[in-house]
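explain this:
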Amino acid sequence: METVETSEDYEKLACRIYEDILALEGVDNIDVQHNVKIKGKSGVEHQIDVYWEYRYAGIFHKVLIECKYYGHNVSLLHVRNLHGLLTDISNSSGILVTTKGYQSGAEQYAQYYDIGLKRIRPPEDSDWNGGIQIINVDMQLVRNHYLGLKMEFDGHCLHTKNKIEESPDLLKINTLQAMIEDIDGKLSDLTEFLDTRLPSKLDAPEIEHEFILNTQGCHLVAPSGDKLSLARLIVKYATTVINQPIHIDAKNAVEAILEDFTSGEVEHMHRKKV
């Protein structure tokens, strides 16, 4: 858990995890707050690390979550303290969250009074037992590189002939800026237009090829907005193939694991923010 360095960081992580859990189907999110104060029946105000309210199956739930960012097991004292909060704050249930675990007396007391004992910890390889953790993919990146281009315009289109005769500079177009309108009226740059129409030469990579592309019904769109009717494009190009192995470890995408201490069940995998 790279982002956790202090008790407050740990509390905020717990808050984010329960916010994620609220997104599950059937849970109506009401509120998740970090470091709140709630007045009990006694009139005493209590500080709560994470306060969680939600509605599930029409029933309102109020959960008090206490976080212990310790390097050792949590003692019975802390479970008793949380039990005291639950007694003073009506209609609430409690969860203790820590990094390591709980002493036997603390676990026995929590089970009797139905207090949840959880761990938030870094992911481990064993969390993916029975599932897929690592995926290795051998990919090929294929790309056409355009080496030469000749445009032939539709000699039967009077509009195109007249435009070229009136403004010969229309033909002085930087191919990097050239836009093509296809027969369906879709506008794309020249590279995109060619990429979707020219075959990749996987059987002869890095070798220059010539391809004649029929472009009847398509138009070259000049920077001025004028459209010139195209007959065909004569393209010289070569195909480049790059082999790219990709290693994906699911553990690297998970920031923390929420685990039920009593059963050992993983209840939630909190993903890292991209």
